[in-house]
Amino acid sequence: MSKHPIPAPILAALDLADASWRPVLEAGLQAVAAADPAYLPALAVDDYLPTEGRLFAAFVQLLDRVSHVLVGEGPYPRAESATGVCFMDGAVGDLWSETGLSKAVNRATSLRNFMKMLLVAEGQLQENDTGGSAMLPVAQRARSAGAGTIQTLAQLQDNLLGHGFLLLNAALVFRKHVPPAIDARAWQPFLQTVLAALAGQAQPPTLVLWGKIAEQLKKLPEAARLPQIHAEHPYNLSFIRHKGMQALFGPMELLRLQ
Q: Which helix (H) or strand (E) holds 229?
């Protein structure tokens, strides 16, 4: 099969991925180009998020260390927020304020609800009471010296990586003039290639799908070879109460320094 030329800016973005992924990601790009030869050339000259060559930034996790593949919808629709890593908002530094979660976390709805789900799973909040008054003592404990609680989003990301997470989006890009579902469809051959590589591992990882766009991956034969768990997207308040997510993440104690 002849190879399709991949635009130079797209190829250059592979440099942010771990080297263990390079052959898989290149094969994935070829699969995208084979399905729609016009897609990547058009994308390369378009305005899209994430910026700064972070298209494949999620692939910092070594291929043979992936234990969970978390798939969200797409990048945050703000340049300062879109990092190329699922729901890791680049505009967020500190997680806590004096009265609860920080303003930046509260603005990133998905991250806010994920944090509250973790707090419920760890027994620090009651799932029917996660508002301001309940958050006040939680934040005070978290910020106190010697509490052993993470303070920044970077530490949360490090903890997720330490537990073997690959933090992907169903659509690797966000464009104001293109519905996320359309870009997600274009990237599906790429994700098929990624999932096929992971399904071939000695210990196949668990696929964690958030939201309707991510759940389209359930239809892929490669996804059927992996254990799966599904939930609504974290921008839904009901995500906080999702028993499957609580059971998955609670034992990991992601809010503790590790």
A: strand 228-231
